[in-house]
């Protein structure tokens, strides 16, 4: 159970008695740590599996947790969402606590909200209706009734979508309508379960005797109502059986009532708690982690004071790319072309994502990818297991599992058997040409074949059964948990929907003021949440990361937009807010004040050969198109590389932290003769100019630079150019 865990993960896994608080940065293996903790407790006999309840926020996350626990031999542990766990308890205890049948659950409240608005004499557009419904949900999870809603909005500084008095009126009528019809909504499930446990000590004792060990994932996202229910589950002094896991820097759902306060104040509530910090990032390259740390280094507020500084455990990768476009269509079309080029290198489409701030930004990227024949999937669209072709495939596979040996599948591996069964519905090993519904259907069936191969590989390694019947049972379990396999297509998703996911390559698009931060983020707290949203987007990338923005909405439009303030001091040619030129970098290793003496103000960069406006980050650094002839002094470039290698060896750091290859190429092409000329090269900031300027200029002049003797103390590694 403990093999392969790093020291901090091992500390989590062996802290079997609470209270335990795990502060886990993005990509640090928190799910691995907490599932090993539960499994270690079960396998060592400290926990009885049926007495463990692990709760999280999405059915997908709960399904993944159950899958990992099964692989670790911890069958019987309950891993559910807050709502699923509460609903089971409500259905079980309602006849005894209240009497009669449990009220019917209202799956979607938006229609009843619309009817309630009509009863109030209000005409509400569909988009307004969604906002109104979300506002009622916020009020309920923060335990605010209709009468108190207007005052609560004013006190919180919340930007209400419409007049608070009108919202309160609709809220009141909506609650009355539910009562008349004998239905409850998802928020009522939590509220009624908590109320029963509060009012009936005998029932509360029964629940606490059933569940003695609790784990709460994504604890930074709990609402006051969820915390109220959790307090009832654990009971007085229940911290002894509680382990919480979270990261305040990933709090991005405060508009739904989530708050990091419970995570940040956990030690105050439980002074005896064990606190473990996970900061070893196994997901992202040092370049991606450097940018993520830089974003948080400029953050403000309570969550920022508890930020975790990540340390990448991966080998170096490419630098994040920053690209400015003239208009949105150009941004989308160029992004799509770059994705197609990346796929041509062997990167799978399912390992690529385009992330944006609002769902309305997706259409132009859908069109751009479709025009190039690149398959994509829109996150948040129809659920995988509800697709007709997937339901049909499930029926076929169940029939094949019940039947005797099939000559078509006999002797084949599991993936081959699944492929043979699906062939009766026209599935082929190769995808159809083009995109659209036919390609979407093929991608769904291909995902089932890949899942079969993965299932067989995992189960065989664990010495477990791997026949078709076992695979069908796995599909049923995944369908119940909405734990869908990956579909082979580029993911298009909002930054909120991307939480908890990761890809090899991430394209963050539309990063302009007014979009990120969104225009209605007015207070400091709201702006900081927008910064955290970008941080979540950055930390989704394993290796390739691209950040882009467009100066105008449409071709020929006024170029009035500005790139997001969150990249100030991080993107080339920008200065961090509140810093002076030449200032030293702060925590996170951001190189502030890059505009050294003589550095040009950011603006269009034209190719020195053909004068085309450049948008690619490397081309802008070289000041020429990739296809235009190079004037690079090859001998100088090699001397610069040899000198860089010596510097890196002295510092015990990778070579790229001295200068990147692109910066050395730019120097070898420009061959600067003065500090002023050297400062004009992208990637040579004030710190690097002071540290390396004399040596680089000596090399450019054909001279050997003066070398510091070995053992001379350095002022620390310099961050990447």
Task: Please characterize this protein's 3D structure.
This protein has 27 helices and 18 strands. It has 721 residues and is of the alpha/beta class. The strands form 5 sheets. A 6-stranded parallel sheet has the order 3-2-6-7-1-8, with helices on both faces. The longest helix is centred in the middle third of the chain and has 25 residues, at 437-461. Mean pLDDT is 83; it is low at 579-603 and 709-721.
Radius of gyration: 28 Å
Stretches where pLDDT falls below 50 for ≥5 residues?
Answer: 579-603, 709-721
Main pleated-sheet profile: 6 strands, parallel
Query: What is the number of beta strands?
Result: 18
First-last Cα distance: 42 Å
* Helix count, DSSP H or I runs of 4 or more residues: 27
User: What is the share of helical residues?
Assistant: 40-55%
**Largest sheet: spatial strand order:** 3-2-6-7-1-8
Mean pLDDT: 83
Shape: globular
Strand coverage percent: 5-15%
- Based on secondary structure, the structural category is alpha/beta
Topology, element by element:
Blueprint: H1 7-14, E1 20-24, H2 30-43, E2 52-56, H3 59-71, E3 78-81, H4 82-97, E4 104-105, H5 110-119, H6 126-141, H7 149-156, H8 164-181, E5 183-184, H9 186-199, H10 201-210, E6 213-216, H11 224-234, E7 242-246, H12 261-264, H13 266-269, E8 274-278, E9 280-281, H14 286-297, H15 302-305, E10 311-312, E11 321-327, H16 328-344, E12 352-356, H17 362-371, E13 376-378, H18 388-402, H19 414-423, H20 437-461, H21 468-481, E14 490-494, E15 503-508, H22 524-538, E16 541-552, E17 605-606, E18 613-614, H23 617-622, H24 634-651, H25 661-670, H26 675-679, H27 686-700
Parallel strand pairs: 1-7, 1-8, 2-3, 2-6, 4-5, 6-7, 9-10, 11-16, 12-14, 12-15, 13-14, 15-16
Antiparallel strand pairs: 17-18
